[in-house]
């Protein structure tokens, strides 16, 4: 799994699937906290630290990745996507597991330096395309800009559920996609809308009744609908 790709978390919110996550608390500025053999070092902690990130939140961050063995840089978000910070949903596997863990309980404006062991990164296989060798320990320097309600939150469900019947119809999700596409302003092929809509129902309408229920939608256990 590679570091996050563009801002798919905003464009395709209903397609995201959860993965297991372990959270590690961060200490005050200058302190460290263990994260399954890794380390989290808080480089800067703003006086106003709210809201703190949690599983399912939509985060906006910049980060650089280095190999611990020689300090060489293998990834820089500032050189990707015209230098825009990355949008991704925390705790669902859009980033490597070590980053999902290390970015828990962060606040906007916070900076961290995290050390991630191979077991929480690319393991014995490595990631040749990303120039990461087998059994590599990774170091990331992270700056978090924003913590927003994620696409699987209660608020997001209620926003899509226009008629308030606690289930999402094709019409409601179609309208939501149109609004999201208009908001991000990216050019897409006309067929993209229908393809994404069909894929959403294929992955989420488990009982095949033509609706996505609150239970089918609500993948984050802390949410109550």
Automatic annotation (TrEMBL):
<feature type="domain" description="EF-hand">
    <location>
        <begin position="192"/>
        <end position="225"/>
    </location>
</feature>
<keyword id="KW-0677">Repeat</keyword>
<dbReference type="InterPro" id="IPR011992">
    <property type="entry name" value="EF-hand-dom_pair"/>
</dbReference>
<keyword id="KW-0413">Isomerase</keyword>
<dbReference type="InterPro" id="IPR002048">
    <property type="entry name" value="EF_hand_dom"/>
</dbReference>
<protein>
    <recommendedName>
        <fullName>peptidylprolyl isomerase</fullName>
        <ecNumber>5.2.1.8</ecNumber>
    </recommendedName>
</protein>
<keyword id="KW-0697">Rotamase</keyword>
<feature type="signal peptide">
    <location>
        <begin position="1"/>
        <end position="28"/>
    </location>
</feature>
<dbReference type="GO" id="GO:0005509">
    <property type="term" value="F:calcium ion binding"/>
</dbReference>
<dbReference type="Pfam" id="PF00254">
    <property type="entry name" value="FKBP_C"/>
</dbReference>
<dbReference type="Pfam" id="PF13499">
    <property type="entry name" value="EF-hand_7"/>
</dbReference>
<dbReference type="InterPro" id="IPR052273">
    <property type="entry name" value="PPIase_FKBP"/>
</dbReference>
<keyword id="KW-0256">Endoplasmic reticulum</keyword>
<keyword id="KW-0106">Calcium</keyword>
<dbReference type="GO" id="GO:0005783">
    <property type="term" value="C:endoplasmic reticulum"/>
</dbReference>
<feature type="domain" description="PPIase FKBP-type">
    <location>
        <begin position="56"/>
        <end position="148"/>
    </location>
</feature>
<dbReference type="InterPro" id="IPR018247">
    <property type="entry name" value="EF_Hand_1_Ca_BS"/>
</dbReference>
<keyword id="KW-0732">Signal</keyword>
<dbReference type="InterPro" id="IPR046357">
    <property type="entry name" value="PPIase_dom_sf"/>
</dbReference>
<feature type="domain" description="EF-hand">
    <location>
        <begin position="148"/>
        <end position="183"/>
    </location>
</feature>
<keyword id="KW-0325">Glycoprotein</keyword>
<dbReference type="InterPro" id="IPR001179">
    <property type="entry name" value="PPIase_FKBP_dom"/>
</dbReference>
<keyword id="KW-0479">Metal-binding</keyword>
<dbReference type="GO" id="GO:0003755">
    <property type="term" value="F:peptidyl-prolyl cis-trans isomerase activity"/>
</dbReference>
């Amino acid at each position: 799994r590679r570091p996050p790709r563009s801002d798919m978390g905003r464009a395709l919110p209903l397609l995201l699937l959860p993965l297991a996550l372990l959270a590690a608390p961060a200490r005050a500025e200058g302190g460290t906290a263990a994260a399954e053999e890794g380390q989290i070092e808080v480089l800067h902690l703003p006086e106003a630290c709210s809201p703190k990130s949690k599983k399912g939140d939509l985060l906006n961050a910049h980060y650089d990745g280095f190999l611990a063995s020689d300090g060489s840089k293998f990834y820089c978000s500032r050189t990707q996507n015209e230098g825009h910070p990355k949008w991704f949903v925390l705790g669902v596997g859009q980033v490597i597991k070590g980053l999902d863990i290390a970015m828990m309980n962060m606040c906007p404006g916070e900076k961290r330096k995290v050390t991630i062991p191979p077991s929480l990164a690319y393991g014995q296989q490595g990631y040749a395309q990303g120039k990461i060798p087998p059994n590599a320990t990774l170091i990331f320097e992270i700056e978090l800009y924003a913590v927003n309600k994620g696409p699987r939150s209660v608020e997001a469900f209620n926003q899509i559920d226009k008629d308030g019947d606690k289930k999402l119809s094709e019409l409601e999700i179609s309208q939501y996609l149109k609004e999201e596409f208009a908001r991000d302003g990216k050019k897409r092929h006309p067929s993209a809308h229908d393809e994404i809509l069909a894929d959403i129902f294929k992955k989420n309408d488990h009982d095949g009744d033509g609706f996505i229920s609150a239970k089918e939608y609500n993948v984050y256990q802390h949410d109550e609908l």
